[in-house]
Structure formats: structure tokens, C-alpha cells
Amino acid sequence: MKVYKDERGEHDLERQIETLKLRIRELEDINEGHRMLNGELRKEMQQLKEKASSHEKDKNLLQGYKNVIQDLSTKLARKDS
Length: 81
Prior knowledge:
With 81 residues, the protein is mainly α. It has one helix and no strands. It has one domain.
């Protein structure tokens, strides 16, 4: 009597091995996708950190300019009085 693959039961070891190999491939694909996304997120985080740093520098520079303008305005007001 010849047994066809379709007639194998769920406890057949070859069937279980094939099922597990397919699942391993699926998990490896998922893992690779996660690695790629993780890499992209790390790049994006670095870019955001650089932008935040640049923003902070600009904010400090603006505050410095504001202080200089206030000082000059005060001196000019004193001179005019």
C-alpha cells in the first residue's frame, strides 16, 4: 500500500519538520524586517537629535542677540536723556 503525502497524519515527523522549517523561514523574514526597521529608526533618531541640538544652538544665539539689542537700547535711551 502506497501512502501519499496528503494522507499523512498530523503526527507524521516529516510533516512536522516541513511545518517547522516553513515557520523558521517566516520568523527569519520577520526578524530581517525588524532589523531593517530598527536601523531606519536609529538613523531617524540620530537626525532628530541633531535637529534638536541645532535648534537649541539657534535658541541660545537668538537669546544672546536679544540681550545685546536690549543692552544697546538701554544705552541709547540713557544717551538720549
